[in-house]
């Protein structure tokens, strides 16, 4: 396995310790250039690996609520190549069985992966699963709140074969 650069520092995203930065980005409004603000936050999540599903909705919401942007979009990105982010209803059946069963049907843990032969490790299936799910998600923000459905939560799935400290980057663009 190649060296990992995704070992996070011990950062959390709970006010007032939300690690954030701000900058202005150009945007076009009614034919003229106007500056928009970009805020960046970091969220650390401890996982058990092996398809651990973690609801990160509250962490993301705290960053949004503590930020200065009222309306815009939030993009959440998982650093690393063996975890993915999506939305779903976070309930025990889905989180503890159904999602894992679906990914097992697509990329079985005991399948043959050339990645494992190349690096002499055991997580080829984790890379394939994370590639299929994707590392990021964008959600609208209105009035300092994430726009999500009643039963819709933001989840991180850690497909790796060991516990990890995952670092998520949240960038908010808006005004």
Question: How is the secondary structure organized here?
Answer:
Blueprint: E1 20-29, E2 32-47, E3 52-55, H1 57-66, E4 72-78, E5 83-88, H2 92-106, H3 114-119, H4 124-133, E6 136-142, E7 145-146, E8 153-158, E9 164-174
Antiparallel strand pairs: 1-2, 2-9, 3-8, 4-6, 4-9, 5-8, 6-7
Distance between the termini: 42 Å
What name goes with the CATH superfamily? YjbQ-like
User: What is the oligomer described by this structure?
Assistant: single chain
In the sheet with the most strands, the strands line up as 1-2-9-4-6-7
Strand content: 35-45%
What is the CATH class? Mainly Beta
SS class: alpha+beta
What is the 3D shape? elongated
| Count of helical regions | 4
CATH architectural type = Sandwich
State the helical fraction: 10-25%
- Assign the CATH topology: Jelly Rolls
Count of structural domains: 1
As a whole number of angstroms, the C-alpha radius of gyration is 18 Å
Order of helices and strands: EEEHEEHHHEEEE
What descriptors fit this protein?
alpha+beta
3D structure, described in words:
- With 175 residues, the protein is of the alpha+beta class.
- The chain has one domain (20-174): Jelly Rolls.
- The chain has 4 helices and 9 strands; from the N terminus they run E-E-E-H-E-E-H-H-H-E-E-E-E.
- It has a 6-stranded antiparallel β-sheet with strand order 1-2-9-4-6-7, covered by helices on one side.
- A hairpin with a 2-residue loop joins strand 1 (20-29) and strand 2 (32-47).
- The longest helix is centred in the middle third of the chain and has 15 residues, at 92-106.
- It is elongated, with a radius of gyration of 18 Å.
- The termini are far apart.
């Amino acid at each position: 396995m190649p060296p990992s650069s995704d070992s996070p520092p011990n950062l959390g995203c709970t006010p007032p310790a939300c690690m954030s930065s701000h900058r202005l980005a150009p945007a076009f409004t009614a034919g003229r250039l106007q500056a928009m603000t970009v805020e960046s936050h970091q969220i650390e999540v401890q996982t058990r690996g092996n398809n651990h599903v973690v609801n990160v909705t509250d962490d993301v919401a705290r960053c949004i609520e503590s930020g200065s942007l009222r309306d815009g979009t939030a993009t959440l990105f998982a650093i690393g190549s063996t975890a993915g982010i999506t939305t779903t209803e976070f309930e025990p059946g889905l989180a503890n069985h159904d999602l894992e069963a679906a990914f097992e049907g697509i990329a079985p843990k005991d399948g043959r992966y050339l990645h494992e032969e190349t690096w002499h490790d055991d997580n080829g299936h984790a890379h394939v699963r994370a590639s299929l799910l994707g590392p990021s998600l964008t959600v609208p923000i209105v009035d300092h709140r994430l726009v999500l459905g009643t039963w819709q939560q933001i989840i991180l799935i850690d497909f790796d074969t060991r516990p990890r400290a995952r670092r998520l980057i949240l960038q908010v663009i808006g005004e």
